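User: Predict the structure for this protein chain, please.
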Amino acid sequence: MPPKNIFLIGPMGAGKSTTGRHLAELLSYRFLDSDLEIQRRTGVDIPTIFEFEGEAGFRKRERQVIEALTRETGIVLATGGGSVLHADNRRDLAARGFVIYLHCSPEQQYSRTVRDRSRPLLQTEDPLKRLQALMVQRDPLYRQVADLIVSTEKRSAAAVLREIRRRLGE
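Assistant: Here is the predicted structure, written as structure tokens:
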């Protein structure tokens, strides 16, 4: 029997949205993406929120969305890479569902996100260095709340999904 909710955490480019869509379909759950929900509620994209409200404003909106979405049932939720920075988000994720940390190296993240201009934290002189710094900061937080850790390093979405299914006992 699958958990009532599955929450996917991990860094940008780890495959949370792609894996989440497939996993939700497999389990006949609804797929939700916290970043897409923030965009839906505000009517603007995430770079615009960062531009006008800064990262702090975005994190406040992210907190509200995580708090609301984790109360749903029968969902697979892909969270933003920084959602674990807020202690209340970590608490809600851990308490309200089964948390899967999709892990990959900063180098893999870089290769997957290098051309994506919609990621405000990567609009910097050295995006790889930023990804490495974010991993140092966030990896312990991901591990703190994870019920399961799955590597997406150099793996297809299908291979990741097969491992999750096997490890969930599906």
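The domain at 5-168 is CATH 3.40.50.300 (Rossmann fold).
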